[in-house]
Amino acid sequence: AREGPRYRPRQVRPPRGRGSSVEVYFYGGQVTSWKNNFGEQQLFVSRKASFKPPKAIRGGIQICFPQLGNHGVLEQHGFARNRLWSVDESPPFLDTTFDCHIDLILKQSEEDLKIWPHSYELRLQVALSPTGDLILISRIKNNNADCKPFQFSFAYHTSFSVSDISEVRVDGLDTLDYLDNLRSKMRCNEQGDAVVFESEVDSLYLSAPRKIVTIDHEKKRTLVLRKKELPDVVVWNPWDKKAKVMPDFGAEEYNCMLCVGAACIEKPITLRPGEEWQGRQEISSVPSSYSSGQ
Ligand code: TA6
To answer: Which of the seven top EC classes does this enzyme belong to (predicted)?
Structure first.
């Protein structure tokens, strides 16, 4: 049966015919397409992705809240990516300088109260800048009437489309400590080391600087990720073995995707009633003449 409009994507295009565009699903509050000003697709979504419950959409930018991974009592990556969001009708609470944006809100549900007994407000603004950059701003507020604080982790689990994963390099993560989830141990990236990909990678870089640069040689393209209030960076590629066992992921698709996203995991955020937090991730896609030193 045709899914209702709630499970169909919303296209967002800037005025004056700029080439950029963004597509968002209310399911998961998830960006599933971002085209830069040249009209080039920057994000990866698996051809085997499901766009309705119970699986989160495989790819795009998953909103992981209130936890990342399964280091907590909730389902993997929390519940926000598995819920139906709605259009946020209240006045844009965030950056109103953008002439192209969509504002979503995830409303508290009775079922969720049972698994996460806190009253919260999670609002997301997805915007395109005049130069075609993609900006995501999330605002989380503690609305607990019982004066209880709550703690959460958060990630923009961002899957980029790349030409050939073995041709991709991530700069800006050198000298950082990182949690290697494959070996469940802390490691350290040496000075000047770019992150390159020859096998499965599942890492959480801690307290990364504000700018992360992903360089895709074949596409002659550089993605620059900037972030605020999101100190950590998740980096993930399942490689061939994992790819084969994920039902919503094509066996060969590990070659053409890379997840690099801003997160706040190592030190979860605590909000007291009435307090709020804003986490911002901005990505620009520039021709690869750009050097990461800039
Ligand atoms: O990137 C962090 C991570 O937790 C990886 O360990 C891997 O599990 C990935 O997210 C995908 O998780 P998912 O629940 O979407 O299959």
So the answer is: isomerase
